[in-house]
Amino acid sequence: MRTSCALGEEQRRSIKNTASDALGVHAVTAAGARPRAEPEPRAVPIPIPPRSGSAGKGHSRISALPGAPRSRQYQIISREAPQRSPTMAGKKVLIVYAHQEPKSFNGSLLKITVEELTKQGCSVTVSDLYAMQFEPRATRNDIVGPLHNSEAFNYGVETWEAYKRGSLSKDVVEEQKKVQEADLLIFQFPLFWFNMPAILKGWMDRVLVQGFAYDLSKAYDGGLLQGKLSLFSFTTGGSQEMYSKGTISGDIRYILWPMQHGIMHFCGVKVLEPHICYAPACVSEEKRKEMLTAWTQRLKTLWKEEPIDCSPEWYFK
Amino acid sequence: MRTSCALGEEQRRSIKNTASDALGVHAVTAAGARPRAEPEPRAVPIPIPPRSGSAGKGHSRISALPGAPRSRQYQIISREAPQRSPTMAGKKVLIVYAHQEPKSFNGSLLKITVEELTKQGCSVTVSDLYAMQFEPRATRNDIVGPLHNSEAFNYGVETWEAYKRGSLSKDVVEEQKKVQEADLLIFQFPLFWFNMPAILKGWMDRVLVQGFAYDLSKAYDGGLLQGKLSLFSFTTGGSQEMYSKGTISGDIRYILWPMQHGIMHFCGVKVLEPHICYAPACVSEEKRKEMLTAWTQRLKTLWKEEPIDCSPEWYFK
Question: Interface pTM (ipTM) of the complex?
Answer without folding.
Answer: 0.79
